[in-house]
Design brief:
single chain, mainly beta, 10-stranded antiparallel β-sheet, 13% helix, 42% strand
């Protein structure tokens, strides 16, 4: 290209090397962004732990992540709502079963309240080979979930184990 008496110069070696390095790094960065996450690292972020009491309705609402040694799917979030006048706690959960795969929300499970006072709420129920006891420590705002084996004389329940989360 000629403008008057000036010609456009070819880029020098340093400018060419800088351009090639920039293009190479950009390509590697874009390829890194396009890679899928490894299956063991879901990077799922559920909501924070939450505790709420409504004294007008005698209701307690708790959410958080269930953790412990017996948890099959550690990427989870659970919700527990207890109603004193209805005499039950309603429980529901959502959890990841693989990379970018979250199960559908199942209908809530209900647990009968066996104790409700200023210090704690205790709800229980039995499912197949386990008795589930949920204890809400109201002042500490903590929840304990304990599964105890039952019906161990039945063939399907012989190897049932206890769990506490």
């Amino acid at each position: 290209m000629i403008w008057g008496d000036r010609q456009m110069k070819r880029p020098g070696i340093p400018a060419t090397l800088w351009f090639l390095a920039f293009a190479g790094v950009s390509y590697l960065y874009i390829e890194q962004l396009r890679k899928p996450e490894p299956s063991g690292n879901n990077n799922i972020i559920f909501g924070e732990k939450f505790y709420y009491e409504n004294p007008d309705e005698d209701a307690v609402y708790v959410t958080g992540t269930m953790s412990g040694s017996g948890i099959a799917y550690p990427d989870n979030t659970v919700g527990l709502t207890c109603y004193r006048d209805r005499n039950y706690c309603s429980y529901t959960s959502v959890y990841a079963i693989g990379a970018n795969h979250i199960v559908r929300i199942d209908p809530p499970s209900e647990y009968d309240i066996v104790k409700w006072d200023g210090d704690e709420i205790i709800a229980e129920d039995q499912f197949n080979c386990q008795k589930i006891t949920i204890t809400i420590a109201r002042k500490a705002r903590q929840v304990a979930w304990v599964g105890e084996p039952i019906n161990q004389t039945e063939a399907s329940c012989v190897n049932a184990t206890a769990e506490m989360v």
